[in-house]
Write a structure and sequence with these properties.
- There is one protein chain.
- By secondary structure, the chain is α+β, with helices and mostly antiparallel strands.
- It has one domain.
- 30% of the residues lie in helices and 10% in strands.
- It contains 13 helices and ten strands.
- It has a four-stranded antiparallel sheet with strand order 1-2-6-3, sandwiched between helices.
- The protein is globular.
- It starts with a helix and ends in a 35-residue tail after the last helix.
Amino acid sequence: SMRSMVPVQGGDPGSTDCRETLSDPGANARAVKSLSYLLGADVTGICEIPAYAWYSHGADGEPIEMKHRYAVVMLIDQEFDTMEGASGDDWISGTQSMRAYLRGAEIAGVMAETLRRLGFAARSQTNVDSDVLHIPLVLLAGLGELSRIGELVLNPFVGPRLKTVVMTTDMPLMPDKPVDFGLQYFCSHCWKCARECPCDAISWGDKVMFNGYEIWKPDVERCARYRLTNARGSACGRCMKTCPLNKVVTADGSVLERVASWCGINAGILKSVLVPLAVRIDDWLGNGTRNPVKKWWFDLEVIDGVCVDPVKGANKRELEPGHHVDPARQKIAYYLANMMPVPNDLNAQPTDRKAALAAAPHLETASDALTRKEQGQAMPPNYRPTPPDPAGPRGVKTGPVVYGGAGRR
């Protein structure tokens, strides 16, 4: 399991020291990317790690040291054909997520150990135990743009159908550059993920400045509640399933989809015509519906450690082109930085949904933030995260015992 791999995610560099012979950042980057593809990563990018991409504290409540300069960021495809046979929130959804996360943990773990044996410090950063925030690193490594789905970076070739894993290291590497393939315009004129969301957690409105970042911010609590309480499936990936950019844009994909992808990236002058047309055609073609031919699994629910037929069945959703939510009436809870839990308090800390709902009118737009910055005004207090307890960690350490130790190095 992924948890059993946590103790070997990190470690000390080996006795062999190849740092002098492996000092060319460009050659190192090519070699590391080649290794990632050999091991099974679908898309790989590299970036320097900014200070804000490091978590402040670990699961043990202790501060996390910013040890490594570079991040090797890898995308793992959750696999198109399987999701074609699914509704997105049925019993295969969680399995596809965990399969991709596990594969990523294996790949990054092997890569980190390889670099340590060459004398470099390296650590795999997985969904089970990570010292870094993945989303900003995926953006900086040039692997996509933020989408309307919210806290998801969409890749032009894999679409939203991805899971991420990161390896951090001090090996000299040549960073990649962020990309702009027109997704902000596309998502500004497409609401299909919001329309198909089972719990209306995705924003129908415009982007906002959330904790200093311009983003279509979803209602993360509403999303999490649905994923955890979904009685007819395992978690949820309905937004990923129904996104018009959830395609196979490779030599194996259809010619129409490859041409559409090329136009989306290169024919910028035609976007005002192509984007609305693409969304309508996507619905007309039935993209996002379930294809029963592609279903290969049995729907099973685990109750008290035993696999049984699902008590309430499985979600069998189809597209809802008539569903619409008025952005002015949509209520989204924004848990701002100053509402975050005390980072070194290990006790359970309840959320205040009423306060998060009341925060909506106080959010800046991007233009508001730029004007404020040009006028030299201070940033709003809600951009400042809850500080740690100066007395140190408090509460019972309830996390898995495998956390920390050798894996933290």
